[in-house]
Design goal:
single chain; 476 residues; Transcription Elongation Factor S-II, Chain A; 3 domains; four-stranded antiparallel beta sheet; 24 helices; 3% strand; iron; DNA_primase_C; DNA primase large subunit; DNA_primase_lsu_euk
Length: 476
Amino acid sequence: MFRSSKRRTAGRKNFEQSNIVHDDSYISKLYSSKLTFYQLPPQGEITLDQFEIWAIDRIKVLNEIESQIVRNKSYKDIESSILPLLQQQLPLNSSNPEKLKQDRQKDYYSHFILRLCFARSKELRDKFIKNETILLKIRFQQLSQKDQQSFVKSLNLPWDFITQDEKSKISDQLFKSIAPSLQYQLQLNDEHSKKQFFDNENFIKLPFEHVIDLVSSRSIYLYKGYGYIPQFQQLKLITNEYEKHLMDSLLTTAHAFPSLDEDDRLLPILQHLSTNSNVSYQPDFESNSSDITASSIYSKKIQENLPLCGSQLMQGLHSTGHLKYIARQQFTLFLKGIGLNLDQALEFWQNEFSKSMSQDKFQKEYSYNIRHSYGKEGSRVNYKPWDCRTILSKPRPAKGEFHGCPYRDLSTDVLTSKLGNMGLENKDIMDIVEISTKGEFTNACTKVLELKSGINEVVVHPNLYFDRMRQAQKAE
């Protein structure tokens, strides 16, 4: 699926020349439509650079979709935000045939590359399916009616449009079944408007098991094992089928992962993309910001930029004069990421620990671990600040511990109180707590970042939150 100059592929599975397919009819079938369910696997060669760059470009689009969802934006708002980004990262409307073919190739390959990235866990699979389904919906609604019909026909789904004679025989039942939808979805309130729309609408007939969600809401007419729905709801059917297809495909991909273990070129790229989907951000833990010192950390200017996890660690340390091992790791690396150099870090920790122990004990039992985190002791690894995924992978804090993610670990009452202390309004606090109770912890932090700074970016790292808050602060 990809190539890289001056790399040996002899002896590796799936990389023999005989496996490379250059079939024009196959390629033509892959890119025959502007929209696809990505049912056929791509075949041929791309470079490792293309492999990574194309994946990153698609992740940028999916991240923006995720960001809009977190902020409870309407579908129209999501669409207006995504369309310009799509045109920039994944365009599919070039009038140049060769350029259009290249764009479709990039779109096709990038989807399959991200399947490899997001197939490894249920959390990643659910996130990928949700965002890819919205992307399909946006693209579908940009198609002309002719292209929409062509796309639906190409899917070979188990449904048919009924004839006018069949519609006439069950017209009363059909009208009753869709009347509520006409009012609430299409804003048709008077009977004349509803009847006029009904008379011009086509209906789809399909096995009822494909529309169980519509059956439970009583918004579909059932007859002899078939369901009848209006054409304006066909996108719901399409997205349902797409979600099922993606879930099956991702599970198949997950089962195939052991066969990738021998390829040391792909795995680092896939690991990077899947564990830090916001690939545009990497904490610059090498740099030393001149205003981040052992004393300036206590200033309001710095404190108000801390994410809630950072504030929790800071408050716990300041009140007790001590943090347990995981919390010390988390906070030491976070402070390192915001620009606190080693000398200032040692001074900061010694000042705080002096409340509960002697300087001699601190030097003997704790200073080594701080120097180790900065790559100055032991194996001298220059450790990176923990991202949200790493923090959430650690054990939950017990009583008297302050590490972890507050959106996951705090009770509703305590979380509500802490969000109030950040100056958020009650309505916003309720929205954030609700997001947290759904298990969308990074999304809750993303919502706080937007409310506090006005910056629209999905938070995948505590240091990203801090950096964006400082960015907004300096812009004031």
